[in-house]
Amino acid sequence: MFDTTRAAVRYLAGRLQARIGARSDNGQESGALTLEWIIIAAAIALAAVGAVAFFATEVTKYTNQLP
Predict the structure, then answer these.
(1) Cβ of 53: how many Cβ atoms within 10 Å?
(2) What secondary structure, in 3-state letters, does the chain show?
(3) What is the pLDDT of residues 20-41, one digit of tens each?
(4) Is 60 exposed, middle or buried (0-12, 13-18, 19+ CB in 10 A)?
């Protein structure tokens, strides 16, 4: 499950780098938009890692309770 999350984050990072490269010659306005997307992507990645950690812990607790 962690490998899927890692692959998704790497894919999003690659897409973000492609967008940054495409917008780098449009002036300063695109810099603010790029920073917004970087922050949003980081927040999504952190949420995904947090969700993986939370669910792994909960599944472990539940499986330990099984007979």
Answers:
(1) 11
(2) CHHHHHHHHHHHHHHHHHHHHHHCCCCCHHHHHHHHHHHHHHHHHHHHHHHHHHHHHHHHHHHHHCC
(3) 776 665 555 555 567 888 888 8
(4) exposed
